[in-house]
Design brief:
Structural class: alpha+beta
Largest sheet: 5 strands, mixed
Shape: rod-shaped
Number of helices: 16
Strand order of the largest sheet: 2-1-5-4-3
Radius of gyration: 59 Å
Number of strands: 16
């Protein structure tokens, strides 16, 4: 956690602001999305339950309409004069009874089958019937042989019994003469056809069930895995159904049957899941928009702060040029304008102090030059040279001549500007002395354009650069040939001086610090400051280096004619 917090602290302000904007937008959006999803999920579940209730009601009404038809048929047959006559005529002879059965009862009880496919048979059990006729007329004593006889009570209303194993539904009405049971009329119906409307709405993820008045299961149909319901009390079945399903119910007023339609919770959740999957592209689109806007706003808000940071960093590395500006009146704008005013004041003070310091150095240099008697120095060096020749010390003679030449070209009669040719002679004398001091362990290569020998340049400009190349470049190289190359090149309107060594070199980033306040010494920095003061920042020294490859220093200054044109 600490590492994560530290990583966040070390991030750029723009990235921090982006993260904060995105998080600040995502949190309320997530809360709103979750709330909307929860409300929509509840709405979908309610719709699913309402749809189930509507489908169940429609199936129940279809079954109820069939029940009403068969109830009307029983009512019609019960109050039919022909049926009443058969029930009450108990002393008919066999022939008359047969004639009445075949001509009256058979058509009356058989014809409805041709109009209703669900009717399996219509039976009349009567005390007046002595011999069973076909399957329509049965003696009352044979009533106990029927599967439904034990399931009906002593009630004159139509009673319904269902037997799944038999595949039959029985609609039964008892007919009494006072308190004496005279007859029983039964319409036997096809189980599957009666409950076909409920079976039609059963799919892979739902099921249906019907219970009677006593809450016994009469019908059950489903294709749900792991759910086994075969009979018994509906209360126990509902406990098992409630664990994995949602259910609705509807009760029929005529039969007292209760219809149930149940659907797996997974199927209902599937509708919610589909809704969520449909929402994902929209959510992702919103996240992308939030992230994109966060990037834009953070960049817009931090642009000036980043510019100010870069300017401060450049100032920290020695630059005094301010490029950031702002016209806004907010805190950032006030900070930028304050920074500009501060840098302007610092530049003014630096220029003032620096100019005074340069003037002081010039006075000190001229005072030092005045104290040195060139003639006395040259005469003394000539005496040393003559004594070396007389003593046969040729190397001492060369060093003495080189030293004499070095000071003669360096002092240059007090002039600040010297010719390129004078500078070359000065370096030749300086390097002659250095070769003797280094036991001739390096080679000097020259590349000089004759066309620029008369061009003017500041004196004592090149010696610190060459000294730096020897001390930090070639002296630290342990193997291989050591080469120092000096080039004086004509670049049309400018003179280019290049000092290049094949020493050990350094990283480019370190090389760029040699002319800044971060440099260990001040030789190259002072040379750079002199050039910039004389010709401007565009003529600053450029240093190129690579480890193992050596270092190259480039100095440029305008030709005298070009400098005059620029001043004009």
């Amino acid at each position: 956690m600490k590492k994560l917090l530290q990583t966040f602290k070390n991030m750029k302000y723009r990235h921090k602001l982006t993260i904060l904007l995105v998080v600040a937008s995502l949190v309320p959006m997530t809360v709103l999305a979750l709330y909307s999803h929860d409300r929509m999920s509840t709405f979908i579940r309610q719709n699913e339950i309402e749809d189930m209730q509507s489908i169940l009601e429609q199936a129940r009404e279809n079954i109820d309409s069939q029940i009403e038809v068969y109830a009307s048929l029983i009512n019609y047959l019960t109050y039919s004069p022909d049926i009443e006559e058969i029930i009450r005529e108990k002393n008919l002879d066999n022939y008359t009874a047969y004639e009445q059965y075949t001509q009256v009862a058979d058509p009356l009880l058989s014809v409805p089958k041709s109009y209703h496919d669900a009717i399996l048979k219509i039976q009349l059990f009567a005390d007046s019937i002595q011999v069973e006729h076909e399957y329509t007329l049965v003696p009352l004593d044979n009533l106990n042989r029927e599967w439904w006889s034990a399931r009906i009570s002593d009630d004159v209303r139509i009673q319904w019994a269902v037997d799944e194993e038999q595949g039959e539904v029985a609609a039964v009405r008892k007919i009494y003469d006072g308190k004496t049971l005279e007859a029983v009329l039964c319409v036997t119906l096809d189980y599957d056809k009666i409950f076909q409307p409920l079976s039609n709405i059963i799919e892979d993820d739902n099921g249906g069930m019907i219970s009677d008045r006593d809450e016994n299961i009469m019908y059950v149909n489903h294709a749900l895995d792991g759910l086994e319901i075969k009979g018994g009390l509906v209360k126990k079945a509902l406990e098992e159904i409630g664990e994995s399903c949602e259910y609705v119910k509807s009760t029929d007023e005529h039969t007292g049957w209760t219809f149930y339609l149940y659907k797996s919770k997974a199927a209902i959740s599937g509708s919610v899941l589909r809704l969520f999957l449909e929402e994902i592209p929209l959510i992702l689109f919103c996240v992308v928009i939030i992230f994109f806007l966060g990037l834009i706003f953070s960049k817009l808000f931090t642009r000036k702060i980043e510019e100010l940071t870069r300017n401060i960093d450049r100032v920290n590395h020695g630059s005094r040029q301010v490029t950031v500006s702002s016209s806004s009146e907010d805190e950032v704008g006030i900070l930028i304008r304050s920074f500009r005013r501060m840098m302007d004041e610092i530049n003014r003070l630096i220029d003032e102090v620096y100019v005074n310091k340069i003037a002081l150095k010039e006075f000190e240099l001229k005072a030092l030059q005045a104290q040195i008697n060139p003639h006395f120095l040259y005469n003394t060096l000539s005496v040393i040279n003559w004594m070396a020749i007389r003593g046969g010390q040729k190397e001492i003679s060369r060093v003495t001549l080189a030293l004499s030449t070095f000071y003669r070209t360096a002092l240059s009669k007090g002039e600040d500007m010297v010719t390129v040719e004078n500078c070359i002679r000065n370096m030749e004398a300086y390097l002659e002395i250095q070769l003797v001091m280094h036991d001739h362990d390096f080679v000097v290569e020259w590349d000089v354009d004759d066309s620029i020998k008369n061009e003017k340049m500041p004196k004592l400009l090149l010696q610190p650069v060459v000294e730096n190349a020897l001390e930090h470049g070639l002296d630290e190289k342990e193997e291989g040939e050591k080469i120092l190359k000096l080039s004086f090149l004509d670049m049309e309107k400018e003179v280019l001086i290049v000092v290049q060594d094949n020493g050990q070199g350094m990283e480019q980033k370190k090389a760029e610090t040699l002319v800044t306040y971060q440099a260990e010494g001040y030789g190259l920095k002072n040379v750079n400051d002199r050039v910039c003061l004389l010709y401007g920042e565009e003529y600053r020294i450029r240093i190129f280096s690579s480890p193992g490859e050596g270092t190259k220093v480039e100095m440029r200054f305008p030709k005298e004619g070009k400098l005059y044109e620029d001043k004009v």
